[in-house]
Amino acid sequence: MRINIYDIPEDGLHQDLDIPVSINDRTKPDRASVRITLLRFGKKILVHGSVNVTVSLPCSRCLKYFLCPVDLDFREEYTPLDDTGLKGDQELSDDELGTGFYEGEEINMVEIIREQVLLAVPMKPLCTEECKGICSKCGTDLNEHSCNCEDDRIDPRLAPLAKYKASLNQRKE
Ligand SMILES: [Zn+2]
Ligand SMILES: [Zn+2]
């Protein structure tokens, strides 16, 4: 899904697109509905629009994949990669504008949308706020089962006592 910059008419190009977004290798691409406007100022392209997608993410606690809806609006300026002289130029360089780059004469919408979605997904996704995660010792999913490892999580101040108790138990065996 590439757009040639010279196909952008003077009053801008408005498009509704359905773009595949893959944010990890484990799952197949999620379809994003994208509504964008592209404006061209010489070789500088201003892209703004909105993206709605439901991505599949691994929960940072239990590691299970879950569906996470992402809705975002973005506004970004793109300059040609080989024309770095244009970087940080006057007229469009509002602070709120990010700057990206494109190669040749084409804007790769798939790349742009993927980048925006990656920026918007949570750093530590959670399947639910209450997710209990998995036991770091035995790997049990604590949302589904409990395990007996809890007893091992001993306050370090009590560790000598626990050791003593363990040695008593061993003697009994
Ligand atoms: Zn989880
Ligand atoms: Zn456990």
Strand content: 35-45%
State the domain count. 2
Strand order of the largest sheet: 2-3-4-5-6
N- to C-terminal separation?
Answer: 70 Å
User: What is the mean pLDDT?
Assistant: 85
Uncertain residue ranges: none
Helix count equals 2
As a percent range, the share of helical residues equals: 10-25%
In short:
With 173 residues, the chain is α+β, with helices and mostly antiparallel strands.
Overview of the molecule:
This protein has 173 residues and is α+β, with helices and mostly antiparallel strands. The protein has 2 domains: 2-120, no CATH class; 132-173, no CATH class. Helix content is 15%, strand content 36%. It has 2 helices and 7 strands. The chain has helices spanning 109-120, 159-172; strands at 2-4, 13-21, 30-41, 44-58, 65-80, 98-102, 106-108. A 5-stranded mixed beta sheet has the order 2-3-4-5-6. The chain is elongated. The model has no long low-confidence stretch (mean pLDDT 85). The structure holds zinc ion (2 copies). Residues 59, 61-62, 64, 126-127, 131 line the site of one zinc ion (ZN).
Architecture blueprint of SSEs:
Blueprint: E1 2-4, E2 13-21, E3 30-41, E4 44-58, E5 65-80, E6 98-102, E7 106-108, H1 109-120, H2 159-172
Parallel strand pairs: 5-6
Antiparallel strand pairs: 1-7, 2-3, 3-4, 4-5
Bound molecules: zinc ion (2 copies).
One zinc ion is lined by residues 135, 137-138, 140, 147, 149.
